[in-house]
Design goal:
2,3-Dihydroxybiphenyl 1,2-Dioxygenase, domain 1, single chain
Length: 153
């Protein structure tokens, strides 16, 4: 892929992940401000393997410079952290997070380029309209972490 196409693809991913403004009801003091952020911290058996996997999805980052057993990855405004858990059993993992985006179709198409299978571990599930009013898909990484990615429809 040439550099201009890579730049265009990254720009479309950044737009798909762009965080919308938060609206609150009058007098609601519990709404998160635009600068507030929750970042999941997920387990991994190997920072090197996790780095390879998430870079294939288009994330940047890797092992933390002060602690090589910890990793930080970013794609647009999405940030994921990982800690090393050498005794993690992926089939028994219940770790995961939900990433809400503005354009789930673009994220799905970009991540599909990674060539993940539809079954097993790792895998990427189909993009579907769910009965609860979201269009979403899921990715399970090599360590069994479940990432659900979706948007309100």
């Amino acid at each position: 892929m040439n550099k201009s196409r890579v730049g265009q693809k990254q720009a479309s991913i950044d737009i798909a992940f762009r965080v919308g403004s938060v609206r609150s009801k009058k007098g609601d003091s519990t709404v998160m401000e635009a600068h507030d952020l929750a970042i999941p911290i997920l387990p991994c058996r190997s920072v090197a393997v996790t780095t390879e996997f998430y870079r294939k999805l288009g994330f940047e980052g890797g092992a933390h410079e002060f602690n090589r057993e910890y990793a930080i990855f970013r794609q647009g405004p999405v940030e994921l952290h990982f800690f090393t858990h050498s005794e993690l059993v992926p089939a028994e993992s219940f770790a995961g997070c939900y990433i809400r985006v503005r354009d789930v179709q673009s994220v799905f198409e970009a991540w599909s380029a990674s060539g993940l299978p539809g079954t097993g571990r790792p895998r990427m599930d189909r993009l579907e309209d769910k009965p609860w009013g979201l269009k979403e898909f899921a990715v399970v990484d090599p360590d069994g972490n479940l990432l659900r990615i979706g948007q309100v429809i």
